Amino acid sequence: MPGRDVTAVQIRKNTLVATVQRAALDERSANSLEQEVSAAASQHPGLPVVLDMGRVSFAPSVALGALVRLRNGFRFESRRLILANVLKAVRDTLAVTRLDRVLELQPNVESALKAIGESKPDAEASGQNP
Hints:
alpha/beta
């Protein structure tokens, strides 16, 4: 399947983590990203999603559109989408377009996982007491 290598997906701490494997998200890559993340998320209903953008140095409008569509789709399902490791060039683009106010950003995957864990009260405490 062409373009299938845009993301690498894993489950960490009850969260779907998708790592973007491309430096530039052109139209084809952005469409593949959206399809791959959506497909992986559908296989793990209810899990929050962290998108590791650490390799992405260029995200034109078509990529921003894909990110907003993912965010809106997950929000409709009451799921969180967090962008992590967003490089300065992409952060600047998000700021100029004001999408940094719409999309949730964390400095790295670990802080995104922590933010998700903190939003689930007693998530780790459940099941610890007999």
